[in-house]
Every structure is written in structure tokens, then in C-alpha cells.
Amino acid sequence: MKEKSGKGLLGLLILLIVIGIAGYFGYANMNQIKLGLDLAGGVSITYQAKEENPSAEDMADTVYKLQQRVQNYSTESEVYQEGNDRINVDIPGVSDANAILQELGKPGSLIFVDAEGNQILDGTQVASAEAGIREDSAGVREYVVSLTFNETGTEAFAEATTNGVGQPIYIVYDNQVISAPIVQEPITGGQCSIDGMADYEEANNLASTIRIGSLSLELEELRSNVVGARLGQTAISTSLMAGLVGFLIVVVFMIAVYRIPGLAASLALCLYVGLILLLLVAFEITLTLPGVAGIILSIGMAVDANVIIFTRIKEEIGVGKTVDSAMKTGFSRALSAIIDGNVTTLIAAAVLFWRGTGTVKGFAATLALGIVLSMLTALFVTRFAMRCFYNLGLQDAKFYGIKKESKPLPFLRVRKFCFAASALVIAAGFAFMGMNAASGKGALNYSMEFQGGTSTNVTFNEDLSLEQISTEVVPVIEEITKEAGTQTQKVAGSNEVIIRTRTLSMEEREALNQALAENFGVDPETITADSVSGAVSVEMRQDAIIAVVFSTICMLIYIWFRFSRITFAASSVLALVHDVLVVLTFYAALRWSVGSTFIACMLTIVGYSINATIVIFDRLRENLKTKEPSQTIEEIVDRSVTQTLTRSINTSLTTFIMVFVLYLMGVSSIREFALPLMVGIVCGTYSSVCLASSMWYEFDKRRGKKAAAGK
């Protein structure tokens, strides 16, 4: 016994030391976490098309290509059209505009010319250009640029290289030859490489120049500024404080409800927080508000994994097993639900990172990192801590809780009422969207990120701080616009502030100029205003939609494979669609702003919903395998939902607490994000408990009838 106590004490000391080290270095390295433009500011560059009156198609194409390019600096970079012929590029987390301009290159014309001086192709026919390193036959490293052409470029390049073996092809950028590789052989596959570079930097510069030259329009730099954070230091500090308060409440809740297991889970969560901070730095992930959403979801899933395990342990103790045996069996039986829930969400995160852009990619990166880390801490760290406490002598069942099986609640009995209520809410959402559209307000209240707006440049008489801008200037602006969500950016080294609002009429612009003059003594003649396009372009929206649809299909296939019945997959996806539509109803009815955080918010709700549903289905699958002949399917379904009800409530409650504290303590932009999340959490719990299993029952019943009819 003394030997076990010694091992338990030593184990706890080691765990506490590891938590302390992770926490210390995590906190010490917080200032190295790359923050997005909304949290930390960055560089804002404005380009202007050299061509007069460029077409809307060329502008849109150039915006999209630049968006793909600047993600090399940060996944949270934004590119949007300003006026008719300008493009603005916001790159977070950097402060040297000149270095960015030099690395990005000056967008200009790019053509490929043969030895006779004939143009072969232009930059728009280059699909990609990447620097790389390879070894020749003698093992010597050489630096190359690999080019890939589109279909028309492949044909043109194949013809030119077939007729020009042994001759150079000149790559001309802004009327200057930047490379003249010799054709060694006909190149017909649409890919080639340029060698002969002295080092990787030279290869990378050439690749960058070719990439920037493949734009649809020839651009020139108009201006570049270093801008301050949109949300300001107040938003960051209050969000951190809210996160800490919410985390402490969750820890107290876990210990109060689950006792020793809750204490073990709290230690694991503390380690999780320290490690997530270190890994954000290690993987150089840019953290923005949507990224915070991914972390919130992963913390919720970490708590969920622990709750699943603890519920299983309580049940095993309830049927008469010893604590030692209950812990072993509990972890074993909880494993499939934890893995299925996390892997399903991880699949979605992987697809979103692969296919998404901007905020979608940033959300996916933090979510994937958090999921992997939360699963590992729940399965290994929590288990290790519980074993240490057990070895210390805390072996009485009262320290772990006892749960005897209760009478199943009749969930299926009220399924038609739940179906009808959900259909009514969803129908109301479409009705609200229709009425909004008919009244000219738009089906949803799209913010400037989606539909564009007005960018106003104001030069104040003094150098205002970010806090002065958010507490003094923004209220004056929103008094005119009658709408929250104003974005402000401070240009470093000057008194200039960039203000972005919804599209303002001429009367509103004049009223804003007058208000700024009266309140801050600004000279109205120095105020300039331009229309800006949505930062979330049509192409980015399409990418986001495609990513969500594809990830949903992948999740459906995985669930179908794991649960061996399409009915489980179909029910899960329907419950997921239900949650999205219900939250959309609130957006339409209450005119919540649909901005850059909308996509991340919906993705968080999707991840939360699918995970909650899988936990219930895992228990249903288990009970179906042990079904007795006297039991009906209705009894099995009701029993499965009842057995997981405590888990559903407790997990939702802990996640809701964190978001609610964020809503109470956060600034307006944080509240705008937290409020829909709270609705989504409640809705996701309701759909998982009341709808998913009921839909599965209906599908399975029809499948059984068809099978019987086919015999």
C-alpha cells in the first residue's frame, strides 16, 4: 500500500511539474503568438490598376488571385476591392510595409518570349510557380523554380519548346528579362523547372515575381500603411479575462459534479491550455477571433471526452464493480465514442483547411490542433491523474460517483411534436428572410465583409489611442449609421484613422463629416470616403460553401462506415442541417450582422452538433448489439438517449458557460460572435437529444418495412 501511495504521490508531483512548465512557457511565449489584423494590426497595401476602367470580371479575378498569394504571409490576410480600380491588401502580424512590398513584388505584366521575339504566353497562363531544392545525379544540391501551366499555356509552351530546343525562352517582367532558361528538350506535360539559381533566396524571388506577374490586371502600388488592431487592446484583455473566468467556473463545476475524476480532468485541462499556447507558437498559427472559436470548440470537446468517460465509470460502479475495475472498463467503453466524435470533426477541419481560405482556414487550423490535443489529454493525462489519486488511497466509490440505470424517458413519444416545432421555426426563418428581402433590407443583415461598405479616411488633430478610438470615436459613428460592427484601423506614425462601415448614402456621409468636425475638430475637407467591396469575396464564399459541403459528405461517409448503416449517417447530417437553419432563423429574425465571423460561427455549431449526436449514436449502437428478444427498438432508443442525457446536459452547460462569460465581459464585436454560438449550443443539444435518434428510428422503421416487403 505504501509503495502504491509513493507511486501515486510521485506521479502527481511529476504531472504538476509538467503542468507548471507548460503553463510557464505557454504564458511566457504568448507574445510570440501571431495575431490577426483584428487583434494585432498589420500592413495595409493599396494597389491601383494601370488600365483605365478595368472590367468587374478582371478586378474580381485579380482580387481572388491576390488572396491566394498573400496567404503565404498569413491565412488571415484579407483582399478586397476599393472603388472601381483599387485593391486593398491587409496582412496581419507584420509591421514592415517595405519588406512586404519587396517580398510580394510589384504586380506588373509578365510574358514568355521565344528567341525570335515572339510572345509564347503570358502570366495568366501560369498556374503555379514554386521554389525548391533537388539533387542532381552526382548528389549536388541545386535550386530550381517549378512551373505549372494551365491548359492553354501547356499547349503554347509545348509548341514553343518543341520548335526551340537549344534556344532560350525569355521571361519578361515589366519589360525586363528576369530569366532566360535554355530549352533542353520538348516540354509537353505542362510542367517544367528552371535551374541555375545560386541559392534558395534567388529561386524564391524568381518564383514570387512569376506568381505576382500572373495577375489578370497590371497593378501599381498606390499607398501602404501600418495599421493598428481593429478590436484594440481592450477587446484582447477582456476576452482573455473572460476565458480565464469561464475556465475557472468550468473547473469548479467539474470538481463539484464529478469529484476526483473532475479534479483529474481539471489538471488535464490546465495542461491542455499550456500546450495549446506553445503549439500556436510552434506551428506559427495566426490567431484571430474565428480562431478563438476553434479553441473554444476544442475545449468543449475536451470536457465532453472526460464527461463521457466519467459517466461510464459511474455506470460501472453502479452495477457493482470495484473502482479499479470501473475505471478500466469506463475508459475502454468510452473510447469508441471519443474517437468517432473527434475524428469526424477532424475530418471536417482537414477539408476546411484544404479547401477554405482566410478565416475559414484559420478556424480549421486551430480546431484541428485543439481536437488532437484535447483527445490526447483526455485519454492519457486524465487517466494518469485518476490512477495517481487512486494509488494515494482515494479508492472509495463515493469519490467517483455512482450511477444506477434509471427508467428510460419517453423521447420517441414526443418526436412528432419536436419535428413539428423544428419545422415551424425553420419555416419562420425562411419567412423572415423573404419579408426582409421584399422590404429591400436584404434576406440577411450582411455586414461590409460580405456586401462591401464605405471606407472613410479621417486625419484627427491629435494622435488618438486605440482605446480613445473605440470608446469616443466609434459611438459617434454608430450614432449616424444606427448599426454596430464599425471597424477602425489606426495608421501607425500618423493621426490618420481608417473607418469602415456599411455603405453610407451621401446624406449620411455629410452627417458623419459634420459629427466628426463638431466632436473632434476635424477639417471636413480632409475627410475622404470610398466604396469598398466585401472582404469575403464571391470566390471565397464559394470556397467556404464547397468546403462545408465536401466536409459534410466526408463525415457522412465516415459515420456510415463506422456505424455500418446509412441511417445513422443520414440522421446525423439532418440534425446538423437543422441546427444551421435554426441559427439562421435567429440571424434573419433579429437582424444579427452576418460578417466575417459568421462562417466560423456556423462551422463551430456544425462541429459541436455532430459530436453530440455521435455520442448518442455510439450508445445506441452498443445497445443494439446487446438487445434482448423482449426489447423493442423504441425501448432501445429511449434507453440510449436517457443514458447519455447527463453527458449531453453537462457538456453543453460547461461550453455554454465559457461562451456566456465571453458574451458578458467582451466588447461589442465579441458579443456579436458569442450570441449566435450560445443559440447554437442550445440548439445542438436539443437536436442531438430530441431529433437525431428520432429521425434514425423513423429511417430504420421504413428500412425494416421495405426489407419485409421485399421478402
Question: What would you note in describing this structure?
Answer:
The chain contains 20 helices and 17 strands. By secondary structure, it is an alpha+beta fold. 62% of the residues lie in helices and 14% in strands. The mean pLDDT is 82. Helix 1 (2-28) packs across helix 7 (232-282), helix 15 packs parallel to helix 17 and helix 19 (645-665) runs antiparallel to helix 20 (668-710). The strands form five sheets. The chain has a four-stranded antiparallel beta sheet with strand order 2-3-1-11.
Largest sheet, order of strands side by side? 2-3-1-11
Portion in helices: 55-70%
Q: What is the CATH class name of the largest domain?
A: Mainly Alpha
CATH topology of the largest domain: Multidrug efflux transporter AcrB transmembrane fold
> Based on helices, strands and strand pairing, what is the structural class?
alpha+beta
CATH superfamily of the largest domain: Multidrug efflux transporter AcrB transmembrane domain
Radius of gyration: 29 Å
Based on the coordinates given, report the CATH architecture of the largest domain.
Up-down Bundle
Question: Which residues sit in consecutive blocks of at least 5 with pLDDT less than 50?
Answer: none
